Amino acid sequence: GGQPRSVQPFSDEDASIETMSHCSGFSDPASFTEDGPEIDEEATQEDLEYKLKGFIDLTLDKSAKTRQAALESLKNAFSSKILYEFVMERRMTLTDSIERCIKKGKSDEQCAAAGLACLLCVQMGSGIESEEVFKTLGPVLKKIVCDGTASIQARQACATCLGICCFIVTDDITELYSAMECLENIFTKAYQRDRDTNGVSSTHNTVLHISALLAWTLLLTICPMNEVKKKIEMHLHKLPSLLSCDDLNMRIAAGETLALLFELARETDADFFYEDMELLTEKLRALATDGNKHRAKVDKRKQRSVFRDVLRAVEERDFPTEMVKFGPERMYIDCWVKKQTYDTFKDILGSGMQYHLQSNDFLRNVFELGPPVMLDAATLKTMKISRFERHLYNSAAFKARTKARSKCRDKRADVGEFF
């Protein structure tokens, strides 16, 4: 018999308890206490696996609401934990459940199932087992992506899932090109809409076009150089038309894709020359300094920030390096390819991204971080910060921030009085 339906959803508490028992010490030195109670890791792991088995059974329930809740709980667990052995033993059962939910479920259930498929592949990494999962799910995902009668949200989720799963598992170049062609057929429809109008009008299909474009861009980063050249020739002159779209997210997606294409083009050909460079930089500069009153302040701020970086990439071949901290480690994002990859997995893993960067062999391999860093108890103890020290640090930071803000306010007040 299956597990009883009274099984509680996987919550953040479960994640925090389980994470603490394994690794929270080196993810946050301040989390150690002087005389904390010892946690029975084996019992905690057994309890977690018992819950997860219950959720897997509930993905077959007659109630759509119960199935969706089970899928969401599994997603939360997979994003916040490394469950490699548990997943490997049940990968075919999970694959069957995901396939059934995508084929027969409604929009929300299909989205949850597609999200779980991404996390399943992230858990297993690249290998034969992942390839088997993708061989089953790939055709189903393509069918939903291309199905005009399916909901936009489901098609959007399946397009993202297709890109991520293909990025993780495929060693077959024909499978890679097939997935890219499927995604191209979706987002190139946004080009066609620009033929009769000066600007691309925002429609309910825009979110689908954005997801397809971003998934396609992710796959482009692992293509052979000769294929990259073909794709650049095909799309580099058409993508600027999407910068006129009414939708902010489409403008940003198009801008970041352009920056990435220029980066790849210059890698393949140091003397790369773009004919319409002046017109493109003019467009990018206008977006980087946009002050239209009919747009929300938050949107304008976000747009200006993104397009300043895009303009620098196109004009000056420059990228503003970002640093990502996770535990005692640091990772520098120093190019558009790396940024695109990081942003994609961060959207899927959410708050679990740092934990996976520390412990997930596949992600560490993608970002060239080497094997996971293992710290012994003595090293962790030296990293520990006492509660009193944390309090002093926070107080000092708060005072400095208050002073800085006060100065800014004083300057604004003076300017106001002067005029």
Automatic annotation (TrEMBL):
Ranges where the Interferon-related developmental regulator N-terminal domain occurs: 19-315
Alphabetic keyword roster: Developmental protein, Differentiation
An annotated GO BP: cell differentiation
InterPro entries: ARM-like, ARM-type_fold, IFRD, Interferon-rel_develop_reg_C, Interferon-rel_develop_reg_N
GO cellular component, as recorded: nucleus
Highest taxon of source: Eukaryota
Pfam families named among the record's database cross-references: IFRD, IFRD_C
Region (Disordered): 1-37
Chain ranges of the Interferon-related developmental regulator C-terminal domain: 360-413
Subunit and interaction comment: Interacts with PSIP1/LEDGF.
Sequence similarity: Belongs to the IFRD family.
Descriptive protein name: Interferon-related developmental regulator 1
Biological source species: Eolophus roseicapilla
